[in-house]
Amino acid sequence: MASPLLLALPALLLLQAQPTFYGAWEDGRDAERRGQFREALAAYQRAAALRPKPAARVVIYGNNLLQGYYPYTRIARCCLELGQPEAAQGALAQAEHLGEPAAERQALAARMKVTQPRELPAPVPPATVPAPSAGAPMPPTAMPPTPPQALVPATLPGPASLPAPPPPPPLAASGAAAHPRAQEPRTPPAALAPTGAAPAPPLPTAPPQPASVARLAPWGLAALMLVIAAAFSLGRRRRRHEQETPREPERIGPYRLERLLGRGGFASTYLAHREGGRGPVALKLLHAFRQEDPEFLGRFRQEARLGALLDHPHIVRLLDQGPQEDTPWLVMEYVEGTRLDVLLKDQGRLPLPLVADLARQLASAMAYAHGKGVIHRDLKPANVMIMGDQAKVMDFGIARIMDAETLTTTYAFLGTPRYAAPELQLRTQVGPAADRYSFGIMLFEMITGAAPFQGDTPFAIMDQHRQAELPDLAALRPETPEALVDLVRGLTLKDPARRPGDDEVLAVLAGL
Questions:
Q1: 435 in Cβ contact with 370 (< 8 Å)
Q2: Is residue 1 part of a domain?
Q3: Is this prediction's pTM over 0.70?
Q4: 1-37: pLDDT as tens digits
Q5: Residues involved in catalysis
Q6: CATH number of the CATH domain containing 280
Q7: Domain count of the chain?
Q8: What confidence tier does 207 reach under pLDDT thresholds 50, 70, 90?
Q9: Distance separating the N- and C-terminal Cα atoms of the chain
Q10: CA-CA distance, 57 to 65, in Å (whole number)?
C-alpha cells in the first residue's frame, strides 16, 4: 500500500505551481487594463503554458477560487488588439476546442469580421448591343424611348407634305454609328407637329457615363465601407479608453499632486507637495482596481509598516504611512537623480572604482533591511537612484517580512525576470539570499555593461537563471579584481544555501 506522503505528492506539486500560474494570469489582467496588450499576451501565454486547461473555477490557495480562467480567449483578444488576426483566429479555435464560453468568443469573431475587408464580386462589363443589319427591324430592348413630343397626331399629313430625309453623315460606320437614333437624342421633326403648333423643344439628356466609371464604382464602395469600419473601430476604442482611463486626482489627503512620476503594477507615483511643507515628496497611490483586492490592500499597507522600520542613508525613507482605511496611499522622500538602469543604458559598463563604491552602499542597505526582517524581492537597477556618487534603494513595495503568515502567497512570482533568483519561480517563501542573487546580477551588469542572461521572452530568461552557467566575467573584463569576480560568481549560485551572507559580502567589498 502506498504511503500517505506519496499519495499527497501530486497535490503538493500542484499547489506549488499554482501561485506562479496565478501570478502570470494577474500580470496579464493588469497589463490588459493598462492597454499594454503585448505584455498581457506574454503573461497569458505563460499562464496557459503553466496551466493549459481552462476552467470556470480554479482552486488557488486554501479555499480561494479563481472564477473564469479562460486564457485562450484572452490571448485571442490581445492578438486582435495587436493587429494579428491569424493568431487570434488560432487562439479562438483552441478556446472552442477546450470549451471556453461561446459568448465572448463570438463577440471577438464578430469584431474580426468587421475589421477584415470583404471580398467583392468582380464588376460586370457593360453589355454591347450588336448593330442590326440593313433593313432588319431593331429589337425592342435596343430601341431608345420615344419622347412624348414625337407621338404622331391623330391626323397625319400626306406624303407630299413630308420633308425630304436629311443626307446620311459622311463618315457613317457599322455598328452603333449606323443608327443615329441609338447614339443621339431623338428630336421630332417639325413636320410631325400638329398644324399651327410650334415645334417642341428637345428634351435634356444626361451625357453618357464612361465605362471606366462603371468599373470603379464597386471598388469605391468597398473603400468607403473600409473607411467607415475603421472610423467606427477607432471611435469605439477611443471611447473604451476614455471609460477605462481614470482621471488623475488633484489632491490626496493634505497633499497637492503636481504630475505623474511613474506607473507600476501596484500603484502610481506622483510628485506632490504638502500644505505648509518645505519641499516636494513622492506620493504612491494604489491603483483603483487594486483597491478592491484584499490581498493587495494588505500588501500595500504592510509596505507602509515595513517602510517605517527602515531608516538608512542608502534607502529611500517613508515619510507618511497614509490612512488605514479609505483610499490607501503613502508618501516617501523625493529623490532627484538618475536611475541606475538609465545610467547603464547611457554609459554601458561603469568604471571599476565606481562599481566598488556603489556596491558597498547597496550591500550596506541590503544588509540593514535584512537585519530588520525585510526582503526587497525585486532588487534591480531601476530601483536604485544615483545622486552623484551616492546611491539609494527605492521601492520596497513588494517586500515582505521573512516567514510572514499574515498575507497569502497568491502572487508568488513578483520579481523582474532579468534579475530574479531561480527560487522565486519555484517557492512561495524566499529568504535574503534571493536579494543577494539579484545584487550579483546587478554587479555583473555594472562591470560588463549587459546583464548575463538575455532572451526574446521572459520565460527564456527565467529558464537561463535556473539552468545556464554565468558567463566568464574575468574574460569579459580582465582588469576586474579577482575578489570581485569570485564574489559575483558566489552571489549567483543556483543554490541559495551556497551563496555568501551579508557580512561576507560587506567584508569582500570593504577590501576592494
A1: yes
A2: no
A3: no
A4: 445 444 444 444 444 444 478 888 888 888 888 888 8
A5: 378
A6: 3.30.200.20
A7: 3
A8: low
A9: 60
A10: 6
